[in-house]
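Consider the subject:
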Amino acid sequence: MTLKIISAEKILFEGEASSVTLPGEMGRFTVLPHHASIVSTLVGGKISYKSGTDEHSVDVTGGIVDVDNNVVSVCVY
């Protein structure tokens, strides 16, 4: 699936990912390929994702995520 993580200043990541774990308001949740469409607010915490064989993480203070059609778009601050 395609993952895009952007802030007001720059693109933090844009590429393929096999999983993304996000800090949702109701707790952490993981998005996998072919996930159902969802929009959620994010709280402070860590976004973790797997790209190829590498695992990465980004610390955020909040944001919003939109999952649709195998594209995960994350706006963070």
About this structure: The chain has a mean pLDDT of 97. The radius of gyration is 11 Å. Strands lie at 2-6, 11-16, 19-24, 27-31, 38-51, 54-68, 71-76.
